Amino acid sequence: MYGWIGKYAVVNLSRGNVSIKDCRLSELKAFIGGRGIGVKVCFENIPRGVNALSEDNIVVFSSGPVNGTMVPMSGKCIASSKSPLTGGIFDTCVSGKHSFYMKSCGFDFVIVKGRASKPVEIVVREGEIEIVESNCWGLDTESTIERLIECYGDCLVACIGPAGENLVRFASVVCEDGGVFGRCGLGAILGAKNVKAIVFTHGDCEVEVYDTEALYDVVENMMLRISWSPALGKVLPRFGTSCLFSVVNFHEALPARNFREKALGLGDKIGGDVYNRKFVRGRFSCFMCPVACKRVVEVDGRLIKGPEFESIWAIGCNCDVHDLGKLIEVNDKCLRLGLDTISFGGVIACFIEMVERGIVSESVPDILDLVEMIAYRRGIGDKLAEGSLRFARSYGAEEYAMQSKGLELPAYDPREAMGQALAYATSNRGGCHLRAYMVANEILGIPTLIDRKSILGKADLVMVHENSSAFVDSMVMCRFSMLEFDDLVYARALSAVTGIEYGRKDVQLIGERIWNLERLFNVREGIIGDSLPKRILKVVPLEAMLRDYYEARGWNGDGIPKVETLRRLGLDEYFKG
Description:
Layout: E1 7-12, E2 17-22, H1 25-31, H2 34-45, E3 59-62, E4 76-82, E5 89-95, H3 98-104, E6 109-113, E7 120-125, E8 128-133, H4 141-152, E9 155-159, H5 162-165, E10 173-175, E11 180-181, H6 186-192, E12 195-201, H7 212-228, H8 230-239, H9 244-250, E13 255-256, E14 261-262, H10 267-270, H11 272-278, E15 280-284, E16 294-299, E17 302-305, H12 309-317, H13 324-337, H14 341-356, H15 367-375, H16 381-384, H17 388-393, E18 403-404, E19 407-408, H18 418-426, H19 439-444, H20 458-475, H21 487-498, H22 504-524, H23 534-537, H24 542-553, H25 563-568, H26 572-576
Parallel strand pairs: 1-6, 7-12
Antiparallel strand pairs: 1-2, 3-4, 3-6, 4-5, 7-8, 9-10, 9-12, 10-11, 13-14, 15-16, 16-17, 18-19
């Protein structure tokens, strides 16, 4: 095979054994890798109605065919499973060399199933995988990573913190360079399986490329376009993702205080300009990426990874933390204890509003204390650890949870961008801006600025974005690359690597296939329909957009794929199952 290694591993924690199997080229061709392979494996191996925190759930760590090649912005790895937060399918992505190391050890993807009887580390080596008893249980992520690198040498570590050990439903998995498998609770799933960490060592397997000369040409073009791109070549390298603060705020699309207010006026306190001027001390790049949008910040004499835009918004705007130094400290504490910052900010903002309304009689502790209370499930933190939807429901106040399908909404106010509102609602993993980044069209003007308040044509555009994004996630490339490249660029890169001819239509078809299989997974789990919080629906005409969207997708009025749609996509067997 070209691009793919052709092998995958199944780690059975309950039995304590590992089996290595051959990949089927037909399946790789149809689902590519990463997110596509992840949903396929999850659909086929996770029993209907299973508790996401039971041993019957599985996790798939997967690479894509371009990982380990010269394709820029390909330093990513995908993990897929059933979410303990939403009850539906999800995938989450981390930056780094993890896919490269996994493939260098001879595996395209690794499936983790069962539950270990005591805490373990899964160590991926060339041609083999070990299940090793862990002595890191109870440590935070920073200490765990230090200990494991000291033990295994040249390796990459993806580990859980106390939040994962205590089954916080939005616990994350943190990696050695500060990268995070963030959303939907992967940390809790690994904690339930007694897995403290996955360790990827470096092997000698190399990725074979079908047409090196053609790939050189594609990569040369991609690098040139990155260099001249206003977003990838200018703004992100200079300011990092915090540059989005002022742009989104200019359009009054940056919400605050649980989507009750606008963040107008906060730019001088926690915006990108003051962040870069007062705290940033350097920048660094993800593996195989020339953009270097990550930031190193200094707080109290310590140099640490700085928060991204979403974290600045979630902790700062949403939770009323207007001291940037404290905001950075909260972000760092979430990293060390293993909490997703967007969901953390969402559940705290929900909690604060419910206290202010007299629904919850508790007082609001300091936010730094709340990080520990949630991670260790102490006091009110035990309820907050369930996520905003379950927390609000427990008080009969679901309307104050700003979420979709149980996943807390990110930084972009859907009342100010109708396409993004539709994307939040229809996202298969819940409230997510990355399933279809309509912000590019509606706020950033990439490739062209469209009327963000209009619903005209938004259904078709959201669908195209969703399909393209599913394909890029299956190649396992950075989503920022979509700020410059279109479907044809990805098709050409994949064709040169694999020797299989892909075109624009194939990108959309494969992305559509993946999207529909994700939808089928959720339908099978009883997740039917698409909606948004009540206060959002007072402004957003969601029903009208959904009608157009379902028709464009070939789904029925409940948002379920029609049989003829599944047949066209080659998904008949999953519908019958």
